[in-house]
Amino acid sequence: MSERLFQRLDTAKTQYYHFKAVTVTGMGLFTDAYHIFSITPILRLLGHVYYESNDNQIPPSVECSMLAIALLGTVIGELVFGRLGDIVGRRRLYGLALMFMMAGSFGSGFSMGTSRGCVLASLGFFRFFLGVGIGGDYPLSATIMSEYANKTMRGAFMAAVFSMQGFGILASSVVTMAVCKIFSRIYPSPPSDPTPKEADMAWRLILMLGVVPAAATFYWRMKIPETARYTALVEKNVPQATSDMERVLEMSHRQIAEGHPLQPSLSSYPLFSKQFFLRHGRNLLACSAAWFLLDIVFYSSSLFQSKIYHKYLRDEHTGKAVTAFEVASLQAIVACYSTIPGYIAVLFLIDRVGRLSIQAIGFVLMAIVYFAIGVPYDRYWRSHTNKLFMFLYGLTFFFANCGPNTTTFILPAELFPARFRTTCHGIAGAAGKVGAIIGVVGFLMASQDDDQNGHKKALGGRFTLVTLSGICVVGMAVTNLFTKETKGTSLEENE
């Protein structure tokens, strides 16, 4: 019966529930991106509130800590929730991860203290708490969608879930811009300046508004049934799995029972045993290494766009500090012309071209663009009119999202047995976020290498971009470690 059930899941026509699952799981990624990427403009507001004596600029060490603390929480969340997802089930933890995010969002907005240090320490604590929830959402969302989807459209459905990250980035930028307009003095016309009191209200409101998309889908997350593959293969309760799928798919019990059975999986080896490493060790290494390399590049570029595009912002022309509105507007522009189009393109290609081909091609094209703008970087740095640099740099986000940024999310949820699926996805995702921390810290250190005429900064930028190009080349090579393409295959075949 269970083999016939899986066959029906794999061959089911695309229907309403598939799109509902994309929405419910995707809103978690939407919320994740909102919080991770909203911190960049918020740092501008924090600088105005707490560092007036330092020209409203947050010290690099504090900036680095605020960016990295949520990523560190994400590492913990991916490992813990990933393992628990295979032990107690995907559904039981799904609402809990969302509760962590909502609590972290509210807590961040209510960060209190009698001094600057207390407020920033409180904010750091709640962003770590938020990161744990974000990390927990990754393996659960990916696995739930992979186990619900049919095999012909599984890649597109999972890519659609992950594409919500792009819309989350855009939403965080739009909300920040709107709040800054409402508190009009936060984006003043020279020579007036915003008041610290208004800026303090603004950054708290921006963070707390991030709870809205999470709360909107909490009810549906609690109502979603456990996936049939977990219930049948891990809990060994085939009748319950069949009953759950009758609620999900437009099929009767008789239709589910019909069909040609597949060969059952009789494997019983434990996690991290010799048998596990012989069968899945290479794929786990490939997933983890590819995600690690990708996130070094992706997060260092994404979280420091305002530093890379500094010549298009006001501080380069007037000497004034960049406002939160300007940083958010830049993020919105990049999201609209490169990030979101990349996610849309991969929806149409992932099940036609295949995961591994898209990943390898994406890494190669990213490497080419980084190298092309990195080698002559001194000329681009000194130019105030060359928008070709901004366009080319934006292409790296397009190729990342229509490439390894999406495939590294999809592959770990397809390559491993149901008993280890969220665990392995969590390990690979945690490796990615370790890479993100390295990228964030490394890029920030490189960006501080500056003297009065900017020459060292140009050299640092050239070195950074060429290094990112080299990392992409290594990522392309790592893609060859994968043992198989998962396009059009059943999850049970991949075991």
TrEMBL record:
It comes from Rhodamnia argentea. It is a multi-pass membrane protein. It comes from the Eukaryota. The chain crosses the membrane at residues 21-46, 58-81, 93-113, 125-144, 156-179, 201-220, 284-304, 324-349, 356-377, 389-411, 423-447, 459-482. It is found in: Membrane. This is Probable inorganic phosphate transporter 1-8. Residues 21-487 form the Major facilitator superfamily (MFS) profile domain. Keywords: Membrane, Transmembrane, Transmembrane helix, Transport. The lineage of its organism: Eukaryota, Viridiplantae, Streptophyta, Embryophyta, Tracheophyta. InterPro entries: MFS_dom, MFS_sugar_transport-like, MFS_trans_sf, Sugar_transporter_CS. Coiled coil: none annotated.
